[in-house]
Design a protein that fits this description.
Blueprint (H helix, E strand, L loop, with lengths): L2 H7 L11 H9 L6 H4 L11 E4 L5 E6 L5 E8 L13 H8 L3 E2 L3 E2 L1 H9 L5 E4 L4 E8 L3 H13 L7 H20 L6 H9 L14 H6 L2 H11 L5 E7 L3 H12 L22 E7 L6 E8 L7 H12 L5 H9 L7 E6 L4 E8 L6 H18 L3 H18 L3 H14 L9 H6 L3 H11 L6 E7 L11 E2 L50 E4 L5 E6 L5 E9 L12 H9 L8 H10 L3 E6 L3 E9 L3 H13 L5 H18 L3 H14 L13 H6 L2 H11 L5 E7 L3 H6 L2 H6 L20 E6 L5 E11 L6 H13 L5 H9 L3 E8 L6 E10 L3 H18 L2 H13 L8 H14 L5 H11 L2 H11 L6 E6 L1 H4 L12 E2 L7
Parallel strand pairs: 2-8, 9-13, 9-14, 16-20, 21-25, 21-26
Antiparallel strand pairs: 1-2, 3-7, 3-8, 4-5, 6-7, 10-12, 10-13, 11-12, 15-16, 17-19, 17-20, 18-19, 22-24, 22-25, 23-24
């Protein structure tokens, strides 16, 4: 995973926990569970305890104990990212993130991925940034020695396994990742244009982390091995282990498996390379996948952990986040040019950048957006930031900081991050102090130093044919568009076994270490209560961190929408947190943030969910605000109109995004055009335009009732205290008799058919294959999930991944799943493949599914059982996983110990039973095949699959 992609893909980056890209990763992967903060909360000072030592070969080792769950997280971080590369030889750091999972001398082919499946790990993963590459996984505690053995094998006994066929195949996988994450999505080239123009060509941040496809294709085996031998050495690596383990024994294992790996050459320090711009640069690009104009302004900024980065983070939040934000007030409320503004830092080891991104409404001239930004800046210069707003922002940052560190994997990440980039893991205990030390004067000072009147890079990305919207004075950006030609990809044979000379060792490393003592898995204790109003409450008390997470579910969603008013539930959800009867939208927002809390609302197909997080000490006050939102809605007309405009923009954007197109078209094909579940939950352009504020009110007053509501609560609060905080809501929320209409069962697919949606010039084909399958309440639902593990539900342990990614290099990722609720949901295979192998990929998927049951063997059964049983040790590790448990119990009438019941199903299921389930639920000749891609080059060939002439869903675009 390229962390560059994370930043470009997430609009929430402006509020990520502080400056670090690493924080962004941790925040995406983890949310809330046991930490040393909980163990030390009686202390007046935050403290994360750890032990650090260094092996003679230079390996840095950091250990952190957390006994809240029987799991351990292991992370290996190498201080090498794209910044260690050379011009003309880019992409190597990211390439190795892929290669290291394939094979090592003693793990064998399939490497850590195969072992992860057996030991019940969450799935080995990795990420690459400009400055480091890491490899990580959380596993049951009994597999710790195995993980240490495996990580040592990757570091010291790997490079001999990289052969020409291995390199050729993985080049294709990385190319597919680039197509999926950059080339085949709106604004995907924006960061590349910015980097080329912000940094001089000699600067290592001037190229993308994923590298150049040309460089990657030209890379020789000798180039790749030289890069590895230079940077993947113990004296450039940090090993972090955090969780429930024996420290003395772990040190013995680390010395045993890592100790004899030879030290490498001295690692040069990365010197800071700040950049300045002699003049402002303006560039534009007509984007094939964009439907809305987007303006991005980027200023040179500071490196990671620079003293000014803390005030710059506050500035970013204040300028853009919330109703009081100057940019929000000017661009959103007053000028109505957009529905939101992002301001964020992208700070790295040797330099950084400060960015504003605005995706404007349809046909908006970006000169108006830029003028609005300048106007907002002037307002900020005149008014500055108040102490109240500073305290509010810092409270949120502090909560986010603690939340990011509240899992074993999160703290492991951060300890390594601080060791490498701040010089010591002890910085984990200093960072939050720096957050809280920011003053009002600091915020204004950094604005004047880095933003006001300073030169910047401006990029205007506009839809094809809308060059009239670009910023005045812009020149055409240099964007390299890959041409995908039939039969031009490099051929390779992934079945060829690598032959190599094994690296000598002091002991036989081919023997996998045994398991430790089996962890005791204790399921969370669930409490339940039904209040007099009919509101059902489900909870789990968990004292590991002083946080509470909650989710109030209002059942109904789009199922209760009037015909021709599709999207009203989604608009209602967005409107619910935009003020109350006695609080303006700004006042409500301030009240929530002053508590260090979050309250959000969102619509799903079958519910509206009001969810949030609060410090335990502020739970009562937070729930009082939730009660006010429910009991005293504001119905703010201005906010309603803004939400409508934002929704229309979202619908327009979806029409250009191949993955959104696939999602929406697939629902229609699965459920049938007349089913309410076929609807796009945000609505259509016509339905949203027709929705009035009265429609929203009517939906709410007719359907919002405690008799169809469920509250899920997890965290550091007792059942009595949780219920006491609901007294006012229970007393004043009037019950109504509301029934949710039954959903018609989707029609059975009696014969397969191929459907094609044309996106001219698409670099990838997005594939969805499936049929209406099972409800979560069906007796066969969990056995079907067991069946699916080795097909496409087990990541790298699945056959689809092994065949299409590892075997053929057709895709970056592929998966299959059974998804259902109280209503029948689909079985789905989902992937994106490079355009010129669309036919081959679909044919291979069809063959795999057709032969899956008959080829399912004892080894498949053993791997499936091993993973599903052992992974229970970490099944309810986080607060969010406990919330999910409560959701399943309350919605599907599962028993409190359903996880144990499912474990027994796994233990007792036979191979013959799974073969029978395959016959029932995996018939490749009775599925819908949807492809979203370039019809001109891919459509006709698909008739050879044998399902007749493909149906073109949007024929007008091909004329």
């Amino acid at each position: 995973m390229d962390l560059y992609v994370l930043l470009t893909a997430q609009k929430t980056t402006k509020i990520n926990s502080m400056r670090s890209f690493y924080f962004l990763l941790a925040a995406c992967l983890i949310f809330g569970r046991g930490s040393s903060f909980a163990q030390n909360q009686k202390s007046s000072e935050f403290k994360v305890e750890f032990e650090k030592f260094t092996l003679p070969n230079g390996l840095q080792v950091i250990l952190h104990i957390d006994r809240s769950d029987p799991v351990v997280a292991v992370a290996l971080t190498s201080h090498v990212g794209s910044a260690r590369e050379k011009a003309g030889r880019t992409g190597f750091a990211h390439l190795f993130e892929h290669l290291l999972f394939l094979e090592s001398e003693n793990l064998g082919k399939g490497g850590l991925d195969k072992m992860s499946a057996r030991i019940g790990g969450e799935g080995a993963n990795g990420s690459t940034s400009r400055d480091r590459t890491n490899y990580f996984q959380t596993v049951p505690k009994d597999a710790l020695e195995k993980m240490i053995w495996a990580e040592a094998d990757k570091l010291g006994f790997f490079i001999n396994t990289v052969t020409e066929p291995v390199l050729a195949k993985e080049k294709q996988v990385v190319k597919n990742e680039k197509r999926q994450s950059y080339d085949n999505r709106p604004y995907g080239h924006n960061f590349s244009v910015i980097s080329k123009n912000l940094y001089p060509a000699s600067h290592p941040y001037s190229w993308e982390v994923i590298g150049s496809l040309e460089d990657l294709q030209n890379a020789t085996l000798e180039d790749v091995k030289a890069f590895y031998n230079r940077w993947y050495v113990p004296n450039n690596v940090t090993l972090t282990i955090s969780g429930d383990f024996d420290v003395a024994q772990t040190k013995i294992w680390v010395e045993k498996y890592f100790g004899e790996i030879k030290r490498g050459e001295a690692i040069p320090k990365m010197e800071k390379q700040a950049v300045t711009l002699a003049t402002t640069k303006k560039l534009f690009y007509e984007d094939n996948f964009a439907k809305l104009p987007q303006l991005t302004l980027t200023w040179p900024s500071v490196y990671e952990y620079h003293p000014d980065s803390y005030a710059l983070e506050v500035l970013a939040s204040y300028l853009s986040k919330g109703k009081k934000a100057p940019l929000y007030k000017t661009l959103v409320e007053q000028k109505k040019l957009t529905d939101g503004v992002d301001v964020f830092q992208y700070n790295s080891e040797i330099a950084g950048q400060y960015m504003i991104t605005v995706t404007a409404f349809d046909q908006t001239n970006l000169n108006l957006v830029h003028a609005g930004i300048e106007e907002a800046f002037k307002n900020f210069e005149a008014e500055g930031i108040s102490q109240q707003d500073l305290d509010r922002i810092k409270a949120g940052q502090e909560t986010a900081f603690y939340t990011t560190l509240s899992s074993v994997l999160g703290k492991g990440f951060q300890l390594a991050q601080y060791e490498i980039f701040a010089g010591t893991p002890e910085y984990i205990n200093q960072d939050v102090k720096n957050i809280l030390a920011v003053t009002r004067e600091d915020v204004m000072r950094v604005y004047q130093k880095y933003v006001k009147g300073k030169n910047f890079v401006a990029t205007s990305f506009v839809p094809k044919g809308q060059k009239n919207l670009i910023l005045d004075g812009s020149i055409l950006a240099d964007v390299v568009e890959e041409k995908i030609i039939e039969g031009k990809e490099e051929a390779f044979d992934a079945s060829i076994a690598a032959t190599y000379k094994k690296t000598p060792s002091k002991f036989d490393r081919s023997i996998e270490p045994p398991y430790g003592a089996s962890p005791d898995v204790i399921l969370p204790s669930v409490w339940k209560n039904q209040l007099s109003s009919g509101l059902k409450v489900f909870g789990i008390a968990n004292e590991e961190v002083p946080l509470v997470q909650f989710q109030l579910q209002l059942k109904g969603g789009i199922l209760l929408e009037p015909k021709n008013k599709t999207g009203v539930a989604s608009i209602l959800a967005d409107l619910m947190t935009k003020g109350t009867k006695n609080k303006t939208p700004e006042q409500l927002e301030n009240a929530i943030e002053s508590l260090g809390a979050t309250i959000r609302a969102a619509a799903t197909d079958e519910s509206i969910l009001i969810s949030g997080t609060s410090l335990a000490k502020n739970y009562n006050a937070t729930m009082a605000l939730v009660s006010e939102i429910i009991l005293q809605p504001r119905w703010d007309a201005a906010e309603f109109e803004l939400i409508k405009q934002s929704t229309l923009s979202q619908i327009l954007q979806q029409k250009a995004d191949p993955n959104s197109i696939a999602r929406n078209e697939y629902k229609k094909l699965i459920y049938g055009a007349n089913s309410v579940l076929a609807n796009n939950r945000v609505g259509t352009e016509s339905s949203v335009k027709s929705i009035t504020l009265e429609d929203v009110k009517n939906y709410y007053y007719q359907n919002a009732t405690p008799t169809l509501a469920q509250l899920h609560i997890v965290g550091a609060i007792t059942s009595n205290d949780a219920i006491a905080a609901l007294t006012d809501l229970n007393k004043k929320w009037e019950p109504k008799n509301v029934s949710i209409p039954a959903v018609a069962t989707p029609k059975e697919i009696t014969a397969s058919k191929i459907y094609f949606y044309d996106v001219p010039g698409a670099k990838q084909s997005v594939i969805r294959i499936g049929y209406p399958a099972l409800a979560a309440t069906d007796a066969d639902f969990y056995p079907a999930q067991i069946l699916n593990y080795r097909l496409g539900g087990g990541g790298f342990a699945s056959q689809l991944t092994q065949e299409l990614r590892e075997g053929k290099g057709y895709t970056y990722g592929i998966s299959s799943s059974f998804s259902g609720s109280a209503n029948k949901g689909p079985f789905t295979i989902a992937s994106g493949v490079r355009s010129n192998v669309t036919f081959e990929a679909v044919q291979l998927i069809k063959d795999i599914v057709s032969n899956y049951g008959k080829n399912f063997n004892e080894n498949d059964l053993e791997v499936t059982k091993g993973y599903l049983i052992k992974s229970n040790a970490r099944a309810f590790e986080t607060l969010s996983s406990k919330l999910e448990m409560l959701y399943d119990i309350s919605n599907y009438n599962y028993a409190d110990d359903y996880a144990k019941q499912q474990e027994n199903i796994v233990k007792n299921i036979s191979m013959d039973e799974l073969k029978q389930f395959s016959d029932l639920y995996l018939n490749a000749n009775k599925m819908i095949y949807l492809i979203v891609g370039d019809a001109a080059t891919q459509l006709n060939k698909l008739e050879q699959i044998g399902f007749g002439k493909p149906v073109l869903l949007n024929p007008k675009t091909t004329k």
